[in-house]
Structure formats: structure tokens, C-alpha cells
Amino acid sequence: MAPAHVVSRFRCSPMMTHGCLSRLSGALGVCVFVAIIRPAEAGPRAVVELFTSQGCSSCPAADKILGDLSRDPSIVALSMPIDYWDYLGWKDTLADNRFTARQKAYSQMRGDRDVYTPQVIVNGSAHVIGSDRAAIDNAVRDTKKNDDVMSVPVSMAVSGRQLNVSVASASANHPSDHGEVWICAISKAVPIAIGRGENGGREVTYHNVVRSWLKVGDWTGKAGTWAVPMENIAQDGVDAAVVYVQDGNRDRPGPMLGAAYTSLH
């Protein structure tokens, strides 16, 4: 990034607080019913969210690391491009101000103002510099010390023109009994030729890019299943989906309780 915005050679931090950020849309037509779910096999150990920007010169190294993580079946890796660097000469073609709002909400929950790119949030709690692979691995290990983190089995399967999402009940050893269930439409790999700005002239591939983001229901500690119409997910370039259960709510996101990833075609 330009010298005025560089916190270190690894990360960039916005100059100003964004006080009016758009809220996430939660309307989604779904069918919901309570079901008995058999115990699932061990699921992923971490959800890794990368807040990145095409306008940040420190980000391509982090984007590459997220690509590596996306090939690890024990990791649910997500790219969430933000929009607050758009004024630096290049408007991010994948950015969504809902991701900016989510990044800020995480900061508010931690009680700090540490919002920067590239920033990784691991399991909804720890934040590290996105280009530091060792720090990401350590955060995955450390966040798993919380017994509730990634303790709820989640599964997802395509059936005709719907996506069936199942969330198991809370176990006696894991007392969390509430959370929100969200589904993300994913583009596995999006190559972008960046025309201007700090990465001008480069082509960067963004991995597991979130293209839409919809709430499907609330989890109350009991097993539940949701049938999500594919038309609420499918769009050009979408070839995978991620579902996660997270403590808290969209404005006050807490620890990740469980997640699943599936290819759509």
C-alpha cells in the first residue's frame, strides 16, 4: 500500500472508521423442519475468512495462502473482498460492503479497532495477518482449545433443485445451544486482471470467493434440517457452497460452531 496506509510490510489498515455499513440481507425462502440426525464423521477443524482487496499490494501473498488452504479438506477457506480501498485508484470487482461490515463487526466483538488487509479471522475469534501462514496455523490450533469451536456436525448435499443442510444437536460435552445458520455461494477460483492501483498490471486468482451470503435459519441446540432452493444460490460462476453455524448473530458474530463445504458441479 502507499506509505500513508502501511501499518507494516505485511498489512494495510484503513484510515477512517466506517460508521454506516449496509446490513446483511437475511430473507431466504426455505423449508425448515426438525429432524433426527445421526452422528456425523469428523468435520472440518476451522473456518478461515480472508478479508482482502485487489487494491492492496500486501494482499496477493495472502490470496495465494488462502488458495493453498482451500485445498485442505480440514479447512473451510473463504475470500471476502472488502471495498474500503477502492479510492486508491482501482475499484475491487469482487468487493461487497457486507464483508466490510462483517470485518468491522468482528473488531467490535473483540473490543479493538484492528481492521486491516490482508486480515484472516480463524473460527470467528482469532485474527492474524493473512500473509503469515504460521500464524494462521497457530490460530487454528489455539482456537480449537475452546470446546465449542467446530463441535457441531454439519452436512450438506445436493438433491435435485435443492440443497439439503443438516445440523446436529449439541452434545452434553459442548454446551452451546444457539447460533445462526448461513449459506455462502462460492466461486472456487476467479482470476482477475487488475488494471490500475497498487497491483496494476497483475493477474491475481481469488479462491473460494463468497458471491452471495444468506441466512437459512436459527439453530437452538436441537438437530435441524433445511431445504434451500438452488435458485437462491446458483448464479454465474458459482460452483460450490459453504454452510456454517456461528454463535451470536450477523451484527455480533461469535465463535464458529460447525461448517461444511460442497461442490455444486
TrEMBL record:
Q: Which residues form the signal peptide?
A: none
> Looking at the record's lineage, which domain of life comes first?
Bacteria
Q: InterPro entries in the record, alphabetically?
A: DUF1223, Thioredoxin-like_sf
Can you name this protein? DUF1223 domain-containing protein
